[in-house]
Amino acid sequence: MTIKSPLDHTIGNLTLNSFTEFRVPPYWGYFLDTTLTPTGQFPPINLNLVPLYGASVSSLKFLVKDASISPRQITYNKETRPFLRDIPPSYTISINNRLFFFTRTTTLLYRANIFNICTTKKYRFPIVFDASTKDLSYLVLTPAQTPIFASRVVTIIDDNPPTLDSLEIMVLNQTHSVVRLGASDDVSGVFMIDINNLLSETPVTKYHLVSGTKLNGVYEIIVPWKKSWPAQIQVYDYAGLSKFYANEQLNLMFDLDLQQSKSYHIGDITSLYLSKNQVDVTLSGVDVVLYANLSQTQQQRDLYSSIALTVALTKSTTLVLGVYNERSQLYEFPFKVPAKTLPAQVRYFLTINMQPFSVESDLLIGKFGAQARLNVINTGVIDTTFPIVTKVDQVPGQDQPLVWDLEFYDVSGVKKVIIGISSEYDFKGKNITLDGGGQTTFRYNLTYELDPSTCRAMNYWISYVYTEDLLGNIGESVRYSNIDFHPFYKFDDSTFDIISVGSSYCSLNIAEISSPVIKSLAYTRTTNSSIQNEQVQIFFKVTDDTKISLDHLPVCFFTDSNNDLVSSVARIVNNGNSGAIVDYICDFIFPFAYGPRALLSIYGLSDIYFNYIGFPSNDLRTLTFNPVYSIPDTSSLVVIESTSSLETSSDVLYIYGRGFKIGSTIVTIQADLEKFIEVPTITTGSVLVLNNLKPAIEYKIRVTEETSRESSLVVTLKGQLPTTPSPTPVTPTPTPTSPSCKTDCGASLGYGEYCSSTIANTTIEPNPHIPSVNLTLDGENGGTTNTKSKFSSLIQLISLKELENGGNDVVSKHVFNNNQWINVPSESNDPNVKTSKYKYIINNSLNTTIYSTVQVFPQAKSITFGKQQLQMNPSTVKFTFNITSYPFSKSTNTLQFIMAASILSSEQIGCSYQEFIQDDNNSQYLKIQIDQVSLFGRFIGYGIIDGREESITNSVVNQADEIATQQTSNSQQSYIGLNIRYFQQTALLDPDFSVLIETKSASDQDNSICSSARSSKKLSVAQIAGIVIGGVVFLFILCAVIVYVLSKKSSNPIALKLRRLAKN
Fold first, then answer.
1. How many angstroms separate the CA atoms of 812 and 801, rounded?
2. What's the pLDDT tens digit per position in 177-202?
3. Distance CA 666, CA 884 (A)
4. Which residues form the DUF7743 domain (predicted)?
5. What dihedral do alpha carbons 434, 440, 444, 448 form, nearest 10°?
6. Contact criterion met (CB below 8 Å) for 28 and 22
7. What is the DSSP track for 734-764?
8. pTM of the predicted model, to two decimals?
């Protein structure tokens, strides 16, 4: 089989009606007006053709640019001929008033920094460099790039490059992750960390510093990929030294798998189709969804795989990150095909894990057939570009000398036009906004009014053009500074628009040529209660021999150590009577981390004769003013910089900001009238993630870092607007049902494992200092007898263990110290639920923190845990535990919390019993019973692990911390292990406890333990009624509480242990 080249094929006719040549440095651009035959089209080869607009596909206007060889066209006789003339050689370009300045990754843009007047402009601006910098390299970006190199003698020696000390990737959601990097440098400090994934570069600078300093700090940045990506990282310091780290090196240094051994290709894509295979965009845009799936494990999907879709539209590309739909088990990529797009087959690409190669749509169509093809139909006009200027003429003979006849064209209709007029001396000029009214051809006579008594004889021209059409296509042109196709392309190099105004009209006598002078300058630090940024006002007084132009407001600039610019247009506060003295103020609000020192420059001062001047920092120093301003450090602040929206869903809230600390950051939320505290499911130095917030119309949010007690300002967010429901028949409110057990109890059948128990009428008081509660049972089945037996109950968190591969081998262990619990303020607007909150900090590399919330429910109530509804029985104690990041030695290990539960009766005669069971819903229950009173604990079979619902296991442990289980007739003790898989951010658990009166006594249970006298004597109902239960504490964490101490002479080992705890 022979595959022929396109050069071998005869094609239909292509007629070039006309073309316009314009400069697109460093090449030439061409605007082509063509006519194509309806079929058999083959456009010229070796051209970067971009369709612009046309009445139909057969009469298109094209843009050709970036062509470095002579274009040619295939003819009928299979030959090629020149299509346009050869590309001209390079040339010298003029500069107007837009100039970019690059120093490494820093871009400075000046617009008002003219130093001299007339046709020559001198640009002077400060450049900040470190004392250890040896060589400087700059790039002045005008239409032609001008590199500048300089060397200097260093005053501080820095010979060692910076180092990358840590690297961690924390997955935020299905599309984005946080890359956390530690870097250090011994002398000049870290300037930048460049993250390269072979497709793009991501600079990390001081604005991403979350802890430490430039000498040794931790940085965070959000990236659109997960844990698998072809990483290359280069660290720079302020001396200009750098160190490079390749992918394999990073994996070995930090035990990562950045680029998995599995490289995805077309064979791994198991399914792919589009929601629409043909779309008509003649009148409007059309929404399309591409569905695809990969052959991968769940771990790869959750933690490693990221897929991006690139759709190659007419003038631009659309990038869509894939989101996995659990229901359909497919990745979804929604995008929109714009209205009036060129009819064609749409090309698209799938990029997996940021690999430097993509799977093209042609290959996918070959594998999956027509369902992978997207065809665009357009039977009307084609429009992918902005309105263009088609006519510029002078209009002589008018009352005003400056009148231009302008014409704009757009096939979809012109919506808006802005025209800027400048002159030889008035560099700033003035912008005039025009309403296009949706006209296809919009004509307008533009008049720039002059006052003969104040104007100056000089040339005027169009310096700026902005155009916008009804479809939203926007174009911008800056005279002599354009590097791409622009609205003024026909006239950028012409002189048609230059109008000379002579002295016969402008009668102003130029009295002097000196420029204004700054006479005084002062800094005043200001505050604003609505923001936390550092602020300053620059007060300066300007004088001139004649009058200062009030139409030309100066601009103040600050340049910091990274050569980053912030600017402020001055405002007039006093201009006196003569106009020769004007007082100005520049208001600055600094970005966080800006500074710590910055150089002031002031540009754009002018008098009424257009004598311009600017004062860079060195010139201010020459005038004896201090141009250096020290900006106070803001690193200790807790700041909310932005959030995600809650207007459509309250399932997840992302809070972006500064000052967040892992393990000690909480969020106070007021949802309408209810106020509560949330511990984020994910905490990084710059991002907080909260899941499953209560629906509300309005939220007020404040972030607090508990160690420093620093808090952010309150941020108000809109919630979901209430919807008016359809009228429905009124039905009685159902009575809450009891939790499911082996027999589904129903509302009135009882509680417990077999629905045979009743809720004891208890009084419950949380301990305000430690996570414990007192439960008191009065009288017989809730009666009021004065006779009471006493019970002491202890539920205590013993230790935390990391287990090798989920087995029994202990990798590390922490034994809890009850004296280290810290009370945390709790805010709750539910008066029927008593809430207390505590935290415990483990001294490890991540300062793992355990938050314990104790809630007492006197009445039945439904609550939400994760996405499931749980029923709280009357007289129930619920514990919520949020465990922050733990330093696992490896990801296959598990974490086991061991908790001891015990109960002791003051009655020496009796029976005790315990059991640990599992129901049909994979939840576990612990029952500790003495006679007819039991402590009933429910352990839900799932937790919220890193923001997702996942199953957990609970099991009985024979001994904990080398203490064996002990059981007697009047005491029971048990150890429960709660086992959690590897997690990165948080694990959330939610057990609860109730006190029950059992219909079946412990003596009637198999394997019960009874005293010797119990065989001939049973407890009376009156004795049971007097039982007092003290101190139901939690499962996870807890300290011991003694409600009542046993007889002082008791030698029972549990009693001795409780007595010792009471003394402490």
1. 6
2. 999 999 999 999 999 999 988 778 89
3. 12
4. 156-270
5. 40
6. yes
7. PPPPPPP-SS---SSS-BSTTS-BEE--EEE
8. 0.70
